[in-house]
Every structure is written in C-alpha cells, then in structure tokens.
Write a structure and sequence with these properties.
Elements (H helix, E strand, L loop, with lengths): L7 H25 L6 H28 L7 H27 L7 H24 L8 H29 L3 H33 L1
Helix pairs in contact: 1-2, 1-3, 1-4, 2-3, 3-6, 4-5, 4-6, 5-6
Length: 205
C-alpha cells in the first residue's frame, strides 16, 4: 500500500468505513430475518468483514510508520483508523451477544437500532468521501452534524427501548439479556459519533 500523494490516506479511510457499512448492513439483515439456528453462520460472515477491516488497518499503520510527511498529523491518522476499526468491532459484538445470551426472537427496537446504525455508517462514508477536501468543503460540517443527529436518535431509542423492556417484560433472564443487547447497540452509535468528532477535531486544528 503505497502513499504517493496526500489523498491516499483519505481514500483508505473511505475503504475502512466501507467495511463498517457492510457490517452494519449484515447486522440489520440478520436482525430483520433473525433465525437462531443460522446465527453462527451470520457471525462467521460478519467476522470475515471485521477481519478484512483489521488487515487494512494494520497495513495502514505499517505504512504510516515509514512515512516522513503525512497529509494530516500522524496522531490524527492513528486516531481515525482506530475509531473506524472500533465501529466494525462493536457491530460484530452485537451478533456475538445475541449468540451468547441465547436470544430466541428479536425485539422490534433492535431492528430500529440496526437501521440507525446503518444510517450512521452511510453518513460516515459520505463524510469521509468529502474529508480530503475539508479545507474548502462547504458540506462536511453538515455531514458531521447529521451523524451527531443520528447518534441522538439512537440515544432516544435506547431510553424508550429500556423503559419498554423494564415495564413490559416479566422474564428476568430476558431483561438482563436485552439490557446488554441494547447497551451494545447504543454503543455502536456512540462509536460512529467518535469518528465524526475526530474528523471535526482535525478540521478545527
């Protein structure tokens, strides 16, 4: 992976976020058509996406270690690469928890959550496609604000989902399991916002 011009890292960020989008789409599809018997297969497919994202991140870090001049500060590249990788990892963890907690059926709020996560990732990709032009861009701030808005939507959904769970669910095992599931789904939205905040930090510098 050679970096012959300053746009190379920006292109890699887009590629990294594309893995987030693929993972989010697979999560959403898995929850919409949830079948506990095929969950191990879905987990394996999602892990392959996460593993490919890890390989790209490691390649980027190895190249960065050899670079003398970078388009943005070295620390910012490391922060962004790590933040993007965290999104894919956190999405994968949702299906892992569904398996560990022996989830039998999916609550409707979880599907709403996965939809928001998918929108967050699509928003991240749109933002990253504009990132290379951040010094002149007239739209990147709007894209950052959109991701912040989606994260707030996730917060609202989390509050209502948890209330509904504790008000209407009587099985204590399901309450524990779904509390953890909703925590992880909400964390996915938070991790997406971390990337938007990191990009905004680069712009502010």
């Amino acid at each position: 992976m050679a970096h012959k011009n300053s746009k190379s890292y920006y292109e890699i960020f887009v590629e990294m976020v594309d893995y987030c989008c693929k993972a989010a789409t697979m999560l959403h599809e898995s929850l919409c058509d949830f079948q506990k018997d095929t969950l191990p297969e879905k987990m394996l497919e999602l892990h392959k996406i996460e593993h490919s994202a890890d390989i790209l991140q490691h390649q980027t870090m190895r190249c960065l270690a050899k670079e003398f001049i970078t388009p943005i500060e070295r620390e910012d590249i490391i922060t962004l690469a790590s933040a993007i990788d965290n999104v894919t990892d956190t999405i994968e963890d949702v299906l892992m928890r569904a398996y560990m907690y022996n989830i039998q059926t999916v609550r409707q709020e979880a599907i709403g959550f996965s939809s928001v996560i998918m929108q967050c990732c699509q928003g991240l990709k749109s933002m990253m496609e504009e990132f290379h032009n951040f010094r002149k861009s007239t739209s990147i701030q709007e894209k950052i604000v959109n991701i912040n808005r989606l994260e707030e939507e996730g917060d609202t959904l989390y509050t209502e989902a948890m209330r509904n769970l504790f008000v209407n669910e009587k099985d204590p095992v399901k309450i524990i399991a779904w509390s953890q599931m909703f925590d992880q789904l909400e964390k996915c939205c938070d991790k997406c916002e971390d990337i938007a905040d990191a990009v905004n930090g680069v712009i502010m510098k």
